[in-house]
């Protein structure tokens, strides 16, 4: 029997490869003869860099750069196994995971621009930039500034980087943007479809999780819209309403200004791993994420994996940290849905014991599959 394990990471808990290996161990304990392959997945957010490096046998490049609040940090970007393609996970340099104090007004994407510049100066011309988990809401202004863009206020003074300062911009000068950036192929890996501004834009939808207060949202959104209008006038491109422009606090918009193309993050990772080819001959597929609910239908890894498996009549099981509101809507994609938690347990204890909980849940599912009549196994019925 062939089993494919293709989970996302369990956010702030376990990387995707650790999730996959825990599930694999559980299955092998009950089904030692099974042919099992693990594909650590991601959707452009946390874990994308690790997954792509793992899949292509790539490497990391370490460098000093700026965090969202301008502090010096040591971070890295990846170079895929082709030794040409650079992978930048913006969460590693401008993400919520690396800040202790959320400050949406001061946080910027300057560090992302520093990583891009370093890679360009080292001769690289192809980029995959994963957007997700950002601490920023600057419309990509910080990144553009790091690459040579200039932003001046009404008095001709340089405007500080940060989401709360873009409203002060009166003049935009993109003439000194790194000239080689326009020779690059830039792929945005993101499954976020929000436009830049408005009620469904970056500020209103994602601002609160980055520390924005309710009473600040309208002013922040107005500032981003003002800044974006200036950028569009300077570049001659109308980009604000493109789905995905609002990803990562508008970093999607800033990258679109540079000629980037938005693609599904989950699809990029799956293609790098040649996942679909393996799913063509799979009997069962196991996937999962930290929490699954009705929102998982909108571009999340498990549903993407299940949709491919469905094409080849492979049956998919969802194994997640928790099942949330309206998770029953996921049954169109999954034979069964499972939470790894058992009995009353705190989130802290659940995350602390995630590997053991994954192992135990996978073992139980494997027993059910292996002890079912052969006809039911072939038809994917539990």
From TrEMBL:
One of its GO terms (molecular function) is kinase activity. The keyword Calcium does not apply. It comes from the Bacteria. Keywords: Kinase, Transferase. The keyword Transferase applies. Pfam families: Gly_kinase. Belongs to the glycerate kinase type-1 family. This is Glycerate kinase.
């Amino acid at each position: 029997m062939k089993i494919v394990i293709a989970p996302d990471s369990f956010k702030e808990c376990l990387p995707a490869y650790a999730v996959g290996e825990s599930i694999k161990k559980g299955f092998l304990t009950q089904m030692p003869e099974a042919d099992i392959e693990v594909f650590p997945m991601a959707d452009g957010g946390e874990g994308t860099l690790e997954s792509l490096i793992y899949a292509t046998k790539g490497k990391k490049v370490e460098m000093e750069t700026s965090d969202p609040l301008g502090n010096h940090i040591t971070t890295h970007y990846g170079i895929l196994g082709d030794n040409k393609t650079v992978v930048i996970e913006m969460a590693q340099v401008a993400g919520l995971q690396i800040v202790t104090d959320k400050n949406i007004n001061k946080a910027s994407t300057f560090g992302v621009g520093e990583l891009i510049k370093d890679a360009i100066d080292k001769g690289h011309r192809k980029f995959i930039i994963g957007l997700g988990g950002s601490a920023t809401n600057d419309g990509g202004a910080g990144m553009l500034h790091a690459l040579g863009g200039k932003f001046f206020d009404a008095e001709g003074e340089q405007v500080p980087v940060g989401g709360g300062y873009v409203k002060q911009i009166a003049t935009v000068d993109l003439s000194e943007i790194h000239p080689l950036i326009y020779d690059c192929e830039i792929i945005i890996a993101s499954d976020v479809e929000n436009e830049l501004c408005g009620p469904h834009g970056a500020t209103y939808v994602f601002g609160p999780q980055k520390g924005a207060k309710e009473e600040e949202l309208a002013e922040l959104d107005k500032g981003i819209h003002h800044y974006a209008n200036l950028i569009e006038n300077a570049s001659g491109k109308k980009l604000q309403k493109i789905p995905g422009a609002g990803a990562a606090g508008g970093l999607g918009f800033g990258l679109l200004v540079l000629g980037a193309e938005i693609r599904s993050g989950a699809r990029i990772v799956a293609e790098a791993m040649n996942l679909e080819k393996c799913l063509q001959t799979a009997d069962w597929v196991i996937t999962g994420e930290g929490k699954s609910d009705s929102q998982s239908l909108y571009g999340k890894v498990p549903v993407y994996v299940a949709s491919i498996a469905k094409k080849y009549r492979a049956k998919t099981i969802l194994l997640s940290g928790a099942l949330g509101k309206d998770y029953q809507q996921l049954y169109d994609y999954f034979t069964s849905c499972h939470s790894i938690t058992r009995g009353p347990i705190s989130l802290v204890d659940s995350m602390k014991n995630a590997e053991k909980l994954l192992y135990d849940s996978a073992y139980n599912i494997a027993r059910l599959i292996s002890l079912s009549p052969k006809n039911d196994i072939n038809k994917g019925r539990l």
